[in-house]
Amino acid sequence: MGGVKTLTRGGSRVYIDPDDAGIKVPGVTSIVGMLPKDFLTFWAAKESAEAAVDNWDLVSQLIKRDPAGAVDYLKNAHRRKSKAASDLGSSAHDIFERQARGDVINLRHIHADIKPHVRWFDEFLQEAQPDFLYLEETVWSDEHQYAGSFDAIARIDGEVAVLDWKTSKSVYDSVALQLAAYRYADRIILEETGESVPLPEMAGGAVLHVRPEGWQFVPVECGPKVHEAFLALRSVYDWEKGGKRGVVGRAVVKGGERATGTERRAA
Q1: 101, 137, 117, 136: which is closest to 208 by C-alpha?
Q2: SS3 for the chain, per residue?
Q3: Does 168 score more than 70 pLDDT?
Q4: Which of 8, 58, 83, 220 is the most buried (most CB within 10 A)?
């Protein structure tokens, strides 16, 4: 038996119980994704505007030849930016895991964009001397029906904490919800064997924020109150994925102007 398998359903990541494939639960990041994202509207508009200004020669020619193509190019500017950042983050995470496991990384084989991150992560390992208890494993909550994959659980300066690696521009407050979900799950399902083991008692959580210019180790409050906020989003997830279906019925009484028979037939 192996670890937990996942699939994508309706844009959300879903985890499959290795003991019963009929049991599927949403992922932590998909649940946290239920948070309002009003700021993304401004960010997407800004990326489109900058793409037009920075690439005006290309865009102006494209407008003449293919106006619809020009619209697609500009409206997807934010997606291209997001994907590039996501790809860099995924590549960095893979190497961070190898470094944490003690692998020797040859920088000559690393993409130039990630080399600084590799150096800074190595410096963190030397400075903090973390004792990794678990790396890149899956937690499962039987009580609240969710699962998620964490980066690390480690002992640092005598205290155990759940850790998350971030390469994003900033450390956002939503990471507290993510770490609280991991911290208060019921068990870890080991990738190698599929065996379930209890989570260790943890003092809290932290983010290792690695950027090209340096790194910082940031403590994150992820206690019971934060977990309660996460569970509220868990309910919102159920609402969005099906709970709201059919709650608005058909009108039983109507008023106002009535359509004529001719109008009804035309419709």
Answers
A1: 117
A2: CCCCEEEEECCEEEEECCCCCCCEEEEHHHHHCCCCCHHHHHHHHHHHHHHHHHCHHHHHHHHHHCHHHHHHHHHCHHHHHHHHHHHHHHHHHHHHHHHHCCCCCCHHHCCCCCHHHHHHHHHHHHHHCCEEEEEEEEEEECCCCEEEEEEEEEEECCEEEEEEEECCCCCCCHHHHHHHHHHCCCEEECCCCCCEECCCCCCEEEEEEEECCEEEEEEECCCHHHHHHHHHHHHHHHHHHHHCCCCCCCCCCCCCCCCCHHHHHHC
A3: yes
A4: 220
Structure tokens at 246: 């059919």
Comparing C-alpha atoms, which of 225, 100, 258, 248 is closest to residue 164?
100
pLDDT at 102: 92
Tokens at residue 221, please? 């409050």
Mean pLDDT estimate for the chain: 87
In angstroms, rounded to a whole number, what is the distance separating the alpha carbons of residues 40 and 42?
Answer: 5
The residue among 133, 104, 113 whose CA lies nearest residue 201 is 133
CA–CA distance, 208 with 92 (Å, rounded to integer): 12
Task: Enter the tokens of residue 211.
Answer: 């950027």
* 205-227 average pLDDT score: 97
* 10-14, 112-116, 163-167: which is most confident: 163-167
CB-based burial, 72-94: b 16+ in 10 Å, e otherwise:
ebbebbbeeeeeeeeebbebbbe
